[in-house]
Design goal:
Length: about 250
């Protein structure tokens, strides 16, 4: 029943995606993160959600974790069954680490102050060379810095994200498919707070710009580097990566 192959049983919920999938909810504490953007079904473990809300966890984060807890653990180690959850979060990580979504929100390990809250970008595949892997890593890192520092808004309904993921899995998608993206992403003149203007673009247009006003992701990164006054050898090294991403 939960997999959609039959009638739901008592206390069962339809699980619409596998553990390996795109995200189901946005969780940022931001006015730009509108609740109506979470427009795909995301069943939750009601008991887990209620327990977290009672403990003071905000409703958005509680819903995210409650969605993780609709799954059973895939692996259980006998020696780790009995644990003090106040000093060890292995029980949580057992479920967290077996939900392989495109983005993962990672909590700090208990009693390790040197490791803070993290967001893990997980949708890329391993490339064949160190240069390729470095290029993709630097591209994603700089894009996140650009989004945060410039206040860019790429929010759109998650149903469009799901559509993009399905298209990305088709053969030669990088050359043949088009992907939904938000045009009005800049904060000047309140542009990014308006209704999202969604358009379909090739990956080349999305990365490099379309020549008709859409600022591509590489251009967003270069604007950010200009604001940082990034020049010289460092800029030249980064440009090799950005040029590679743009051409690929």
């Amino acid at each position: 029943g939960e997999r959609g192959e039959g009638v739901l049983g008592e206390a069962e919920q339809r699980i619409h995606k596998s553990r390996y999938s795109s995200i189901d909810t946005y969780i940022a504490d931001s006015a730009l993160n509108r609740s109506d953007f979470n427009d795909v079904p995301a069943p939750v473990n009601d008991e887990a959600v209620a327990r977290m809300v009672e403990a003071g966890v905000d409703a958005t984060l509680a819903r995210h974790v409650g969605h993780l807890f609709i799954r059973d653990p895939l692996v259980v180690f006998r020696e780790k069954l009995e644990q003090d959850n106040a000093t060890n979060n292995d029980h949580f990580e057992n479920l967290q680490s077996t939900n392989w979504n495109t983005v993962r929100f990672k909590v700090p390990p208990v009693n390790q102050d040197n490791i803070q809250w993290r967001v893990e970008f997980r949708s890329m595949e391993l490339n064949l060379t160190d240069f390729e892997n470095a290029a993709h890593t630097v591209f994603v890192m700089l894009l996140t810095r650009s989004i945060v520092s410039e206040g860019l808004n790429f929010y759109m309904p998650i149903s469009y994200v799901d559509t993009n993921m399905k298209r990305a899995h088709s053969r030669s998608a990088v050359r043949r498919e088009k992907f939904w993206v938000r045009q009005n992403k800049f904060k000047q003149d309140g542009e990014c707070e308006a209704e999202p203007q969604l358009v379909e673009m090739t990956l080349g247009e999305l990365i490099n710009g379309d020549g008709s006003g859409f600022v591509g992701l590489n251009q967003c990164i270069r604007r950010h580097l200009d604001l940082l006054d990034c020049t010289g050898d460092t800029r030249a090294h980064i440009e090799r990566y950005l040029d590679f991403i743009g051409k690929r």
